[in-house]
Amino acid sequence: MDEKLRELAGRLGIATEYTDSGLKAGNHLVDDETIRFFAGVLGYKAGNNEETERSLRALDNRRWQSVLEPVYVVEEKKKVFDAVLPVDDFEGDFGLKLVSRQTGSTEDVSFVVTVTAESRTIAKKEYRKAEIEITSALAIGYYEAELKTSSGTYKTLLAIAPEKCYLPKGWERKKLWGYCIQLYSLRSRRNWGIGDFTDLYNFVDVCRHAGADVIGLNPVNVLGHCFPEEASPYMSISRLFLNPIYIDVEAVPEFMPEDRYQIGADIADLNAAEMIDYGRVYPLKIKVLKTLYQRMKEDPDRMEEFEAFCREKGEDLERLAAFQALYEDKWKDHWGGWRAWEKEYRKPGTAAVKKYCREQADRLGFFKFLQFEADRQLKRVSEHVRECGLQIGIYRDLPVGVGRDSAEVWSDEGLFLRDSGAGAPPDAFFPTGQKWNLGAFNPFELKAQAYRPFIRIIRAAAQGAGALRLDHVMSLMRLFVIPEAAGKPGTYLMYNFEDMLNIVAIESHLNRCLIVGESIGNVPDGFLDKIAAKNIMSMSVLWSERWDAGWGDFKAPYQYPENVVASVGTHDMAPLKMWWFGYDIALSRQLGITASDEEMRNNYHKREADRWKLLKAMDENQVWPEDNRRHGDYLFGEGYPEGLEEAVHRFMAKSNAKIFLLQPEDIFQVDKQQNLPGTDRDKYPNWRRKLPVNLEDFENSLAYYRNVSAVKRER
After folding, report:
1. Residue 403, class by beta-carbon neighbours within 10 Å (0-12 exposed, 13-18 middle, 19+ buried)?
2. What span, in angstroms and rounded, lies between the C-alpha atoms of 501 and 523?
3. Is the overall model pTM greater than 0.85, yes or no?
4. Where are the alpha helices (DSSP H) in 97-179?
5. CA distances, 669 to each of 177, 572, 574, 630 (Å)
6. Is the predicted pLDDT of residue 354 greater than 90, yes or no?
7. Is the pLDDT at 218 greater than 90, yes or no?
8. Is the predicted pLDDT of residue 23 greater than 70, yes or no?
């Protein structure tokens, strides 16, 4: 690779080589074409040596083109930011005014200005860089800062971060447990064929009775209105708002018993189905909710609450509603998503979009109503968590990216990497890597916008939650990005890690929310230590807590890290019973994910050895139920070991992990996976499986009772 191109890649944060985390880790050299492509995506041309050199000069000059950067993220113990000023300014007086974005109050601050040795002559005028250190104490949060010098007044956003993320009082003495649930999968006798916010409300009572303190929740962000079968909770159209499919229609204040008369049979049919039929559930709910919206408009008190909600959510809600209404109008005639719309509709704020919003105000009002009611019902759950005394309560999940055909990207296309999306290189669980096609922030544009889009999505997910899981937390440091064009290789793109960490810490404190980082996959060396130092918990699953990079014995409970949320697996992994029988191995071969019968046989041989290792770990740690000891070696064909899930749950509950989450799929011996990464619904019914037991019957189930008792014994 040309040294100038290598230098440009380093300056832009584009990795020129990387190592994957497959079972046989491989090193990958990134080709010049990929480097040039992503340099262009970031706004720096590198098609030839001349363009590369121009881009390097532009980067050299970048900081000297403005007095202040758009944002400074600093820790409260050292509040220092820089400024580029004409040398003459240093002979005059300086003024600094800060206005808190939390309280609106003006802060009187003391500060010291230090002139550095860095200088640059621009248009025959000499400029120097100064460091400004605020010596007054400031509360954690965001401040609109105004710097006055003899040459002018300059503004920036100052973010004051705590040294570490928020931890609940007495955290060092806590050892909690709870559940990790996929809300859509909750089966109940009362819902309309999919779990909803009332099921979640009732699940809080189940937790209270059992002594559980955490409810890990799959992402509940809004998905595409016109394609309800596109059901992945990680492919949202906006991480700022909720999925209306989770609204309990019968809990909407305007609902009347007679609203069920004509659809009662449909509800019963959807409720009884083994799989979630999104294509019927969502339209049915929307049809009734439209009637309820019209009724709400006749109620002055509800309209007052609704209008207050719309004012609070502001432009973000307006844009979501406009996007949904436009999409509903255009999807049948414009294949290819919003990028195929007429030019005047491809971004908000145009005269055509403004006119459309005025003319379609009532339709936009309906989409806003969906968010108003979803927000009200989820807040009701959060209030119930507090009433029931759960120490953590709702533990929400913030997806790493957003759908590229989404309201988020449509609202601000320049904020996202163009012609490319987020994914992952090969790792131990996904040996071929993953192409998620998710919209990813452009790190340069994100900072130019003072990180406000990142702050908004963190805050939207943290509000009302006791804990927040950052999906693929490594993206705070780096994200694997892949061109949209088929067959093109990807590479890692670096982000402003310290800034991103500190913003997470600010929002953690402002929202009193514990932060957890989903750290399964290709984790950079030293990364876990860095987030642990910031009080960000990691995730730990049984299948990854093994010696010799996943080939050796299972670690004993006392060998688990402490600052983690532990579970047996995740929604992307085979549940315990499926794993035991190797059904996932057979499925992988059936779908062509495993390339050959020989590879499948090798996987079976490894699984047989892994089963022996799992039994050995259960034996050595004496976690088998006393009334149901191991009866044999359980070779293939000998059935499922009675009491295995109890033993495994007790094993995990004994671990050092601060939090242990059970998956209902393991309690009730589900032998099918919720999601099979790398497949669409034409190959596998992802995100559609209901639990085999009604929520109302959990506490009457012997399997539930025994597994919960096994966990409580060790927690």
Report:
1. buried
2. 16
3. yes
4. none
5. 20, 16, 11, 17
6. yes
7. yes
8. no
